[in-house]
Amino acid sequence: MRFKLQYIALFTVSLLTTVSTGAALADDCMSCHAKNSVTIRVPQTAPIRIMADGKEQQITLAQGFKFHGHECPGMTTAFVAIRHGIKLLFKDTIPDRNDLLITAITPAGGVKDMIDLVMKGSSPSDKTWAPSGMKPDIQGFVFTLMRKSTSQAVEVRLKPSLFPDDFYQLKQKQKGKKSTTEEDQRLHDYIKNIILGFPAKPAEELFGTPKPYKVILWGTIQDGEMDRHIRKMRQIEKQKQLQN
């Protein structure tokens, strides 16, 4: 099992109706929406339920978007994936946060923020940084969840065919202000279809039918240990870049 014990993450909600072609979406989604009078509506979908400090928390897609700062296809994908994984491992039981481990293999900001919201809470100071060297990829929407009390794990993997092949290429072109009006509109349509479509689809249609399996783990991870390791890795990488 490629079980990377690091708390990294994902979420989403719902987008909109119309927007003029050529609108800039990338990192300034909210200003784009305001500029083009885009109407935002949150899809009606069940929350993620989790116990934290003895109290039940219900995390909605709308809360995820607010925490992240804007509507996000990565966050949406993570939201439905984590909710499905919890259902497979815990059935009708509400999991305790301390009984759950989650790993991700993408550094996508929406994914990280979604998992942070579930596993750490809503404090901006607790947001997770991705290890140096990770890059977003359409094959990266893979989440492993583990229920520690039963030594069970499950891998929830988005079917690659459901995520547009050229999504990240279009995002890079738009970020570099090199995209055409047609490409901007295509990227916008991708984002809208994921945010509005994924929460409405049966989980099996998105992720297939993964089966929980038993695992054995060795070693320990202290609270905050992975965050410290990641910060150190990023500092070393930054120093290398400055020296070159």
Give an overview of the whole structure:
The protein is of the alpha+beta class. The chain has a single domain, classed as 60s Ribosomal Protein L30, Chain: A, CATH 3.30.1330.130. Helix content is 39%, strand content 12%. It is built from 8 helices and 6 strands. The strands form 2 sheets. It has a 4-stranded antiparallel β-sheet with strand order 3-4-5-6, with helices on one face. It has a two-stranded antiparallel sheet with strand order 1-2. α2 packs across α4. The radius of gyration is 18 Å and the shape is globular. The N terminus is likely disordered.
Span of the ends, CA to CA: 37 Å
Counting structural domains, the number is: 1
Number of helices: 8
Q: What structural class should be given to the helix and strand makeup?
A: alpha+beta
Instruction: Give the helices and strands as they follow along the chain.
Output: HEEHHEHEEHHHEH
